[in-house]
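Q: What does the predicted 3D structure of Multicopper oxidase domain-containing protein look like?
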Amino acid sequence: MDDSLIGAPGSGISRRDFVKASGLGGTLALAGCTAPGDASTEQQMGNTDTTPAQSSDLPTTSPPEVVDVDEQGGEVTISSLPARHDAHPGESMGGPVELPQVWAFKADDGDPSVPGPILRTTEGEDMEVTLDNTGGMRPHTLHFHAVQKKWEDDGVPTTTGIRVDPGEKHTYTIPANVPGTHLYHCHYQTPRHLDMGMYGIFRVDPKGYEPADKEYFVTLKEWDSRLNRQMAGMDASYDPRNRNPDTFTINGKSAPRTLHPEDGSPIIVERGDTVRVHLVNGGYMDHPMHIHNHRFQVVAKDGGVIPEAARHDQDVTSVPPAGRHTLEFEADADPGIYLMHCHKVNHVMNGSAYPGGMVSAVVYKEAMDTDIFEQLMEYAGYEG
């Protein structure tokens, strides 16, 4: 049996332990099941108006992987390619929700993903990041937030004169001199390229870093699917000055797919765990994130550690565009399943179907053998 980690990217539990705890191995095959929601949502969202000729030849994105750049000698190659992105492929809760074309990042020989791969390194190390655009169709760059670097490595073509055209490669030297959780993205025609999926997390562990019992990376993003449909050659017109998001994702997925243990990003915990969640906003709207039945502290913002005297217990934190909030809490609640979601009601919908969109959950391992968890896995399309 595959013993890879499941849950949100980070330190989840093994698939073996998940099957043991839930008893769901090989028992579900209900990706098309129904769930609470509005059956007319597909027509209202317009996300599924694709034809085989427009999308069938594209690869489908995978969940983002964590790349330990230190283990690779401080070197990583990033490239981008068009892909189809299934935010929620099932019919439950207003699905399916699809972005018929995204521009996905991949690291080295890995799979393309939206968000892009999580690049993880250690304070004091330099990263050599090569943007490989040899197979590309349009110019790109890479811009890394927070860290101090040489002028020519800033990734902004307007001010550095450097862009990576189709057929070219370019290597950026990115010093890991600001510990914390950061963002990277394409900075060429940013309103379009970032909104097509060219963004990811850049994590710099401080020297002597002590991980929590459970540690997860979570990226928030809202999408105006007209852009994705336009880029797929469909009948849609997009204007960034009139941006109107209709798709809301956590690590690229919309609820209930967010709860899928392998394709989604549930926050899997065991009672007594210390839990650390790195929240990153890859979009252009604020997202007030709320966790049910737990009080957390925001221990870092945008790579800056918050002094203990300034921290306080809270249950909602609003993450601004490009913002990064690191939360810590104890898994001390009655073992169960507790929502983690944006508190803007239209952000937790798939079209007019509620709930959906930017919703995930803190899932206690101890609650995985319950009937309600099995029902949630059916909604999420988990096939065992």
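A (community wiki): The structure tokens above were generated from the sequence. The chain has seven helices and 22 strands. Helices lie at 15-22, 41-45, 52-55, 157-160, 190-193, 225-231, 371-380.
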